[in-house]
Amino acid sequence: MDIQLKRGLLDVCVLAAIKNEDSYGYKIIKDLKPYIELSQSTLYTILKRLETAHMLTVHTVEHDGRLRKYYHITEEGIKRIDDFKNEWNEILTIYRFVVKEDEEDV
Amino acid sequence: MDIQLKRGLLDVCVLAAIKNEDSYGYKIIKDLKPYIELSQSTLYTILKRLETAHMLTVHTVEHDGRLRKYYHITEEGIKRIDDFKNEWNEILTIYRFVVKEDEEDV
DNA sequence: AAGTAATACTTCGTGATACGATGTATTACA
DNA sequence: TGTAATACATCGTATCACGAAGTATTACTT
To answer: B75: which of A29, A40, A49, B34 lies 20 to 30 Å off by Cα?
Structure first.
């Protein structure tokens, strides 16, 4: 998929991935794989960004002798998903414009 | 609207705006305004990028004593719109994932 | 006649971002 | 013994949207 189209979707996808259950980096990548592929460097960049924006909190848990960083969504993170759902209507309007122009002469 | 969400849509919108009739910068901005707002600096950056990518061609026409640069879509530009329409299904899948996760506990 | 809005294109600088490359470290399995 | 899987971190880079500022003409308003 076009890189540019992914932008704007990535943050929300990550938030959606941790919304119902706290999760950690490696699992998030695997969970999202069927929908959107993202590399580790991309994911950790996003997680750090979302943490700075207070959309999630982090807590470290020991698991099988190694550390895992679990990410927990905050109220602001939930609001971010809501905002996205509202913005979706604008996206749809734009999509319809493109299709309309495209089919005008078919 | 979220800046990131606009990315990926911008290029295609501009191409859609010139698809049925050659147009020029100032008019493109006005035509797109109801759907997506973009500044002059943004638009001209996009037009230059699309020209470099051979998705459109430029020809200058004198109009009322001043020069106007008309943009004409190419086959590749038309293909770009087609590609976008295909990618739209992936976007929809992602959208549905976000909504599904979001409504799981409602 | 003077001033302002609209038309029309250009360039510069900047912050945000996705991602490849690379590194570290442990566990599981062949 | 080796390799894949698990798990997180950092650096550098190219791309990009956009504000700011500039240039120049036409059209209107006062």
So the answer is: B34
Number of folded domains that form chain A: 1
CA of A24 to C1' of D6 (A): 12
The distance of A75 to chain B (nearest Cα, Å) reads 13
Helix (H, G, I), strand (E, B) or coil at A42: helix
User: Residue A82 sits in a domain of what CATH number?
Assistant: 1.10.10.10
A41 min Cα distance to partner chain B (Å): 19
B56: containing domain: 3-105
Q: What is the pLDDT of residues B47-105, one digit of tens each?
A: 999 999 999 999 999 888 788 999 999 999 999 999 999 999 999 999 999 999 888 76
Residues of B with CB below 8 A from A20's CB? 101, 104-105
Q: What is the pTM of this model?
A: 0.92
Residue B6 and residue B89: Cα distance in Å, rounded?
Answer: 17
- State pLDDT tens for residues B25-47: 999 999 999 999 999 999 999 99
* Strand D, nucleotides covered by protein (CB < 7 Å): 6-12, 16-22, 24-27
Question: Strands, DSSP E only, in A17-88?
Answer: 23-24, 56-63, 66-73
